[in-house]
Amino acid sequence: MDEIRGDEIRGKTEGAATVPLSVLDLVTVGQGRTATQALRTSVDIAQLAERRGFHRYWVAEHHSMPGVASSSPAVILAHLAAHTERIRLGSGGVMLPNHAPLVIAEQFGTLEAMAPGRIDLGLGRAPGTDGATAAALRRTDRLGEGADDFPQQLAELTRFLDDDFPDGHPYSRIHAVPGPVQATAEGGVQSPARPPIWLLGSSGFSARLAGVLGLPFAFAHHFSAQNTVPALDLYRESFRPSAVLDAPYALIGVSALAADDAREARRQVLSGALSMVRLRTGRPGLVPTPEEAEAYAFSPMEREFVDSWLVNIVHGTADEVRTGLDDLAKRTGADELMITANAHGGEARLRSYELIADAYGLPAA
Questions:
Q1: Rounded Cα–Cα distance for residues 100 and 298 (Å)
Q2: Based on the number of CB atoms within 10 Å of its own CB, is 318 exposed (0-12), middle (13-18) or buried (19 or more)?
Q3: Residue 76 C-beta-side C-alpha neighbours within 13 Å
Q4: For a pLDDT cut of 90, what percent of the chain falls above it?
């Protein structure tokens, strides 16, 4: 394991926050907006997050969803790296079964070379899309094989990142570049450091695997809230100290949106809820406006879904959101909260992160 230390993983608390606060960006695209505007908003939020003391900024891989422009995390992270200086950047996550491990090692080795010491590699085993799109990505309709082989794919990726395939292995003469091989080559001065690996999950599989391997774990509370506490318990029970961590470290993704008044916060999260209704019923599209969501005639079944969805979104005034986030951190024992704000417009998302930063007294510069 090449120069990965726990202090590169554990976050730092700022202001009055009880745990480190971070940002998860889905690069959402609203009706009447373009992907170009959404990506510019991502830069604005990343710069705000860096300025206000959020610890890390992750983007998530999704495919074939008009309202989500984050199909290429490595490309977006390279763009964000060019517009930030200190904040950690990473994937939350890259869906490992969609890609050859060598390709991911090369992409994130390149990112590490661009932004040394600032890159996280979060990995998931879900496709990040529907079955037909996953089949197109993987060039096979045997999708279960990719998920079942996740531990083997992870081991191969780790070997490429560490450049330590044993002699006699078919890949022993293959090197992920940029990477550690450039430090050991004659005249090499490249740092052997590489991005730390995180495992992501929404159930128990990755929680157990992360624990057994002694890796940090990120749980998708924002869309699998009922499984959060059991998965974190399983992670902690399974944890074995490693060269990476001597104790468990778990963050959870949290949907949260603050506005200047509670009614406006409700309007904003309702548009995200309507977007989820359409996604779950096979009608994915751009994120609707708050006005459309307010006027929409939800069926009884849709209303039931929306009510259950909104229960797990922390929203309201800044003080209400702070209270909700603090309660969630205490209830789950999470070591870090990664906040995602799903709203129609970039202005509402930017305002939400600014208000949350103010509520916790995070640094103003």
A1: 42
A2: buried
A3: 31
A4: 84
